[in-house]
Design goal:
Layout (H helix, E strand, L loop, with lengths): L6 E6 L9 H15 L3 E8 L14 E6 L4 H4 L5 H4 L4 H7 L6 E4 L17 E4 L4 H11 L3 H17 L8 E4 L2 H10 L4 E4 L19 E4 L5 H14 L7 E5 L4 H7 L5 E5 L3 H10 L2 E4 L9 H9 L2 E4 L1 H4 L9 E2 L3 H11 L6 H14 L2 H13 L1
Parallel strand pairs: 1-2, 1-4, 2-3, 4-5, 5-6, 6-7, 8-9, 8-11, 9-10, 11-12, 12-13
Helix pairs in contact: 5-6
Length: 377
């Protein structure tokens, strides 16, 4: 395929490096892949704690940072906080200095999407979640009353604000479930399934058997904290198999819970290298979620790098990845699958099946070509 695009603006909701959590993983590896194709990238990112990153200069022609407007002023608006706090006159001025396509990363970055000054620009909305569904799930998972009220309020604002995506020339979604949502709600827009970009250039699975089971995630997020506690209390309450739980900033409740189990180890704030090694060395990567939103990038990471992958159905909802995972929703059956799989080596046939499916449907090159076809059509 001949690529006619030479330069592009990308608006990121956060500084996309280090690529150590879901949303920015997609942004960073998208930037890296576009750069490898000779496309010049003008990156615009909102900064609120991660700082300016020299690494981004390797892949971008220009990198512009805008301070996110956190605080009460952005919270009392009828515009959702995640959007209101990411407004910038300077960003608007910078985008008007060129006429290249604009890629809006997440609903967070879309405050300019309906601006008349950009009516004739090619605009892509890159969806990462159905945000109001995601915030409703956060509200259900949250125990703090004030936070629960905030998430519920934000969900209502986000559902109303979402209609701004009609101003995009193309909507690129991360899951097949989300594809149906946007196609049904905005039938006049061109909407296509473009899986998230990720670090997996090739399937890299170790032969032999591992000696432990791993659950990992950002443990400061209520969804992941709840999943870790579910795994401990429901799946390992009467098991002696070794379990490692790894991730960023675990809660005190989780730390105290792990202390009660001699066969369970908590690994706090591992580096990217350490996390990759944990995933590769595990006999089983166990992933669980209560909310089927977006595409779980940690699942892709596991499938590219880990041995056996055991999930619940919501983990793979809206994807075809259930074909290459072991899966059950029933707690008793999940326990049985974990026990049996702990003693079985992953086969060459299983590894080959992963290679075929991941290369065909979830490779960075495949996602890149889908975006390019949209721009060039």
């Amino acid at each position: 395929m001949q690529i006619s695009l030479t330069e592009i603006n990308i608006i990121s909701f956060d500084v996309p490096f280090p690529a150590n959590y879901g949303g920015v993983i997609d942004v960073f590896y998208k930037i890296k892949h576009f750069h490898s194709k000779g496309i010049k990238i003008h990156l615009h990112c909102f900064e609120y704690g991660r700082g300016e990153q020299v690494e981004l200069n390797k892949y971008c022609t220009s990198v512009n940072y805008y301070k996110r407007k956190t605080g009460v002023g952005s919270q009392i608006s009828t515009t959702p906080y995640i959007i209101k706090s990411r407004t910038s006159k300077r960003l608007r001025e910078n985008l008007l200095k060129n006429d290249f396509p604009i890629l809006f990363e997440g609903l967070h970055s879309c405050f300019l999407l309906d601006d008349k000054a950009f009516a004739n620009r090619f605009k892509i909305f890159r969806e990462s979640n159905i945000e109001h569904d995601y915030y409703n799930h956060l509200a259900k998972a949250e125990k703090n009353v004030l936070k629960k009220k905030y998430y519920t309020s934000e969900a209502k604002k986000l559902e109303k604000f979402e209609s701004i995506v009609q101003h995009a020339n193309a909507i690129c979604v991360v899951s097949l479930t989300d594809l149906k949502h946007f196609q049904n709600k905005y039938p006049n827009n061109k909407t296509l399934f473009v899986p998230s970009f990720h670090s997996g250039e090739s399937v890299n699975i170790k032969k032999g058997k591992g000696k432990y089971i791993l659950y990992h995630g950002n443990l400061s997020v209520a969804e992941n904290n709840n999943a870790a506690q579910f795994i401990i209390k429901k799946l390992f309450n009467d098991s002696s198999l070794p379990l490692k739980i790894a991730g960023l900033n675990p809660t005190k409740d989780l730390i105290n819970l792990v202390k009660k189990y001699p066969n369970i180890e908590l690994i706090q704030n591992p580096t990217d290298k350490e996390m990759t090694e944990l995933i590769q060395d595990a006999q089983i990567n166990l992933l669980h979620t209560a909310q089927a939103t977006g595409l779980k990038l940690k699942l892709l990471n596991v499938l590219y790098n880990g041995r056996h992958c055991i999930v619940n159905p919501k983990m793979v909802e809206g994807t075809s990845l259930g074909k290459i995972c072991l899966m059950d929703a029933n707690i008793t059956e999940l326990k049985k699958v974990i026990q049996e799989t702990f003693n079985i080596e992953i086969t060459d046939e299983e590894i080959e099946a992963r290679k075929v499916l991941l290369t065909r449907e979830y490779s960075n090159e495949n996602s890149f070509l889908k975006i390019m076809e949209t721009i060039d059509s």
